[in-house]
Design goal:
Blueprint (H helix, E strand, L loop, with lengths): L2 H30 L3 E7 L6 H20 L8 E7 L4 H15 L3 E3 L4 H10 L1 H5 L3 E2 L6 H4 L4 E2 L5 H14 L4 E8 L1 H16 L3 E9 L6 H10 L3 E5 L2 H13 L6 E4 L5 H8 L1 H4 L3 E4 L8 H12 L9 H17 L5 H9 L4 E2 L4 E2 L13 E5 L5 E2 L1
Parallel strand pairs: 1-2, 1-3, 3-4, 4-5, 6-7, 6-8, 8-9, 9-10
Antiparallel strand pairs: 10-13, 11-12, 13-14
Length: about 375
């Protein structure tokens, strides 16, 4: 018996088996290191750049924290972007481009009702099977669109809650400033329904052109109407410009309420604490530190040097955290797998804030609260 030859053959078989295991493990490790791509088409330049950058900063803040802990299932999350400058035709084109070029498992954070309506009408999400989470709009048309998920209350929820509160303190005469597009028309429809339901009068409806700060006509119409409350169904830049001009026109006697989409950090910075004092606004995402998600966000934000982080960034942060939780439970980390997991997710707890993505036709949350700027710019909620 040739023990040496037998041992050599055993060694050869062992070596071959070890090599096969090593190669398989190496392939597995290589696959595990492949990034999970998330895409965002949003305005990073133009009138709504402050919103696009804020949403991106909030999402990146969470993804960076997850990556520091090893990513999702051992894979890092990579957030890739395209700048649509808030132009709906570019939103559609760039959404198709980013899906083709980057193969994202999901999209997130596209800004604007008109832009999101354009994506829904184009059908790109249905055609490619890529879902979008954290779409930045509370319009009913967006909430009803297949494959698009909103992580906050709808505009109708905001307006209904506001008018309900105002009715309890005897407010009767309300003026509405709205952007003349899908966003504004959705807010207008909600305001008309809420005013009727609560026995209030929508005295004036003053529109301004989309993606502009041309609010002079709206200022004149509202100032002439002598309303008790002015509700701003406006975007950030136009909302700030309206407040400046309305104050100069002697509108100090009316209380100003802003839609949640107005970036209050930007407004406070532009107006200063004294001019912003008394400005009230709806809050559709948690802000108080009694919720774990807020504490987590504040802790990470404090350690970050990202200048784009603002009050609006919480929306991107929550969308990113919800997406990570969905991905952790998905059957596969593919667009189809993540989309299916998202569509059936009924109770996603991101830290004291629950989201239900499974009920089509409505937003994932109906949480609405109010806050106001008090003395020295301090928030009163």
């Amino acid at each position: 018996m040739d023990i040496g030859n037998q041992g050599g053959r055993r060694f050869a078989r062992w070596s071959a088996a070890y090599a096969a295991v090593f190669l398989a493990a190496s392939a597995s490790w290589g696959a595990a290191a492949e990034p999970i791509v998330i895409g965002q088409v949003a305005p990073f330049t133009g009138p709504q750049a402050v919103t696009g950058r804020a949403i991106h900063a909030g999402a990146k803040l969470y993804f960076d924290a997850i990556n520091a802990k090893g990513g999702v299932r051992g894979r890092p999350v990579k957030l890739v972007t395209r700048d649509d400058a808030q132009k709906a035709e570019d939103t559609v084109r760039l959404t198709r481009e980013i899906i083709a070029a980057e193969s994202p498992v999901a999209l997130m954070g596209t800004v604007g009702t008109t832009n999101l309506e354009a994506i829904a009408k184009d059908g790109v999400l249905a055609q490619t099977g890529v879902a979008m989470i954290g779409a930045v709009s509370g319009a009913s048309t967006v909430a009803q669109a297949p494959g698009i998920y909103v992580v906050k209350a709808s505009y109708h929820d905001e307006v209904e809650r506001l008018f309900s509160q105002l009715a309890t303190v005897g407010v009767q005469r309300v003026g509405l400033v709205y952007q003349d597009d899908g966003l504004g028309r959705d807010v207008l429809a909600g305001a008309e329904a809420a005013a009727k339901a609560h026995g209030m009068q929508l005295v004036v409806r003053a529109g301004y052109p989309r993606n502009t700060v041309a609010v002079e006509k709206a200022v004149a119409e509202i100032a002439k109407a002598k309303v008790q409350v002015v509700f701003l169904g406006a975007t950030t830049a136009a909302g700030i410009e309206f407040v400046k001009q309305y104050s100069a026109a002697g509108g100090a006697g009316s209380m100003l309420y802003g839609l949640s989409i107005i970036d209050t950090d930007a407004l406070l910075k532009a107006l200063g604490p004294e001019r912003a004092r008394g400005y009230a606004f709806s809050v559709v995402l948690p802000q108080q530190a009694d919720r774990a998600v807020v504490r987590e966000y504040l802790q990470l934000r404090q350690a970050s040097k990202d200048p784009d982080l603002s009050a609006r960034s919480m929306e991107g942060f929550i969308a990113a955290k919800a997406l990570v939780k969905v991905m952790e439970g998905a059957n596969t980390l593919s667009a189809a797998g993540v989309g299916a997991a998202l569509a059936s997710a009924k109770a996603v707890d991101v830290g004291g804030y629950l989201l239900d993505f499974s009920t089509r036709g409505q937003t994932a949350s109906r949480y609405v609260d109010f806050a106001m700027f008090g003395a020295r710019g301090k928030l009163v909620q």
